[in-house]
Design goal:
The protein is globular. It is of the alpha/beta class. The protein has helices at residues 17-28, 53-61, 65-69, 110-120, 166-171, 243-252, 258-265, 282-287, 312-332, 340-374, 378-390, 392-400; strands spanning 5-13, 34-36, 48-52, 77-81, 88-93, 105-109, 126-127, 132-138, 141-146, 151-159, 177-189, 199-205, 208-214, 219-226, 272-279, 291-292, 295-297. Strands 1, 2, 7, 8, 9, 10, 16 and 17 form an eight-stranded mixed β-sheet that branches. Strands 5-4-12-13-14-11-15 form a seven-stranded mixed β-sheet, sandwiched between helices.
């Protein structure tokens, strides 16, 4: 049995945003890792994501920020539609009070982001078609069993395997729960240019949250979140009949200007996706095992959250830089009397301590913001108008004004 083990010093499960960023962080420090990906190729579902100041700081820390800035447009503020008429009736600068000088907010294609990371990693870092089915222990090592029967023995196991994380389950974390809302997302190309201002175009209320923003001059990303009670019985048919998703969104934005409807109309069916929104209960992050000995979780495996403050991907980037730094400190500093496993354990504990409260805060704020943005009723509509004009842009920038630090202290 022992002969069948393949030894890997640091094993990362999941070649998504958190997994690749962690691998690249370690690579920048001279530490080799292996990334296991269950799919046959790089997963680029989700189309695009908004990256705020904290994410760009993390991308700069791993050396790819400027490359991605060239492929994205800096957002300036919000264009807000009236929930009554659907027309864009007001604008709000992101940093109207100039409290967050140097802020960044850009939408990036997921494909560009992940492929940029892969291009910076050593060949062979990612092992595709490698689904984890079980995790065992051999002394202080972890044994990771794959669906093809192979077994990997590792000194450090990092779970970046998303909402349905096998590693999180092994750690004893609760399964993420539904928030009672779903999301339809799309990406559309305008060959001659979209002509949209670099703004978030948004419409909230009545149980629906719809918005779109330019990624670059020719690409626009859009989203529509809603409560399942609004979804007709053909919801299960959406995966095979995506035209129904498009029709559903169009019926919810039929009061909005034609330019908004055109964004959805022009989206090809292959560029539309549907997902139920889930989150990890905040107290599970606060009191659960996010780190145990030489095992930890990061990204959506740690803190799945609703998309309402745009921090899911951003916080995954934060996780990975902090994790890379903590492991680097543990493995690269001149060894003392402690053995390597003890140093790895302390490094991961330091990571967990730094990320626990931050994750708790982001999950909680995102849930509350989403509840207010989509709730029905005249009182909530009034509070939303007051709250959005005076608080929302500041809240977005405040949550994003976080410094994950460099890879080397």
């Amino acid at each position: 049995m022992e002969e069948n083990h393949e030894d890997v010093d640091i094993l990362i499960v999941g070649a998504g945003l958190a997994g690749l960023t962690t691998a690249l962080s370690l690579h920048r420090l001279g530490l080799r890792s292996m990334v296991l990906e269950s799919s046959e190729s790089l997963r680029i579902t989700g189309f695009a994501l908004t990256l705020w100041t904290n994410a760009w700081r993390a991308l700069d820390a791993i050396g790819i920020g400027n490359t991605l800035r060239q492929k994205s447009t800096q957002m300036k503020g919000f264009k807000i539609a009236s929930p009554d008429t659907g027309l864009f009736t007001s604008e709000q600068a992101l940093d109207k009070d100039r409290k967050f000088e140097g802020y960044e907010s850009r939408c990036v294609k997921r494909k560009d982001l992940l492929e940029t990371m892969v291009s910076e990693l050593p060949p062979g870092t990612i092992r595709y078609s490698s689904k984890v089915v079980a995790i065992d222990e051999l002394g202080r090592f972890k044994l990771v069993h794959l669906a093809d029967g192979s077994i990997l023995k590792t000194k450090a196991l990092i779970g970046c395997d998303g909402v349905n994380s096998v590693v999180a389950k092994w750690l004893g974390l609760d399964t993420p729960v539904s928030v009672g809302r779903s999301a339809i997302r799309g990406l559309v190309e305008f060959p001659d240019g979209s002509g949209f201002d670099p703004m978030f175009h948004v419409n909230f209320g009545g149980g629906v949250r719809f918005g779109f923003l330019p990624v670059d001059d020719k690409t626009v990303y859009w989203f529509c979140t809603f409560t399942p009670s609004q979804v007709p019985t053909y919801e299960e048919d959406w995966q095979v009949n995506p035209i129904k998703m498009k029709q559903f969104v169009l019926t919810r934005i039929n009061k909005m200007p034609q330019e908004a409807q055109d964004v959805v109309e022009r989206t090809t069916l292959s560029s539309i996706s549907y997902a139920q929104l889930k989150f990890r209960l905040p107290w599970n992050v606060l009191f659960g095992n996010i780190v145990k000995d030489n095992v930890c979780v990061a990204g959506d495996a740690l803190h799945p959250m609703t998309p309402d403050i745009g921090q899911g991907g951003c916080s995954s980037l934060e996780d990975s830089v902090v994790l890379g730094r903590c492991l680097g400190e543990a493995l690269l500093k001149k060894p003392n009397e402690e053995d390597e496993f003890e140093r790895i354990k302390k490094g991961l504990e330091k990571y967990g301590k730094e990320r626990r409260w931050r994750s708790f805060s982001l999950i909680s704020v995102a849930y509350c913001v989403g509840f207010m943005q989509e709730s029905k009723g005249k009182l909530m509509s009034f509070l939303r108008k007051v709250w959005f004009s005076s608080y929302t842009p500041t809240a977005f920038l405040k949550m994003a004004n976080y410094e994950c630090g460099n890879l080397v202290c």
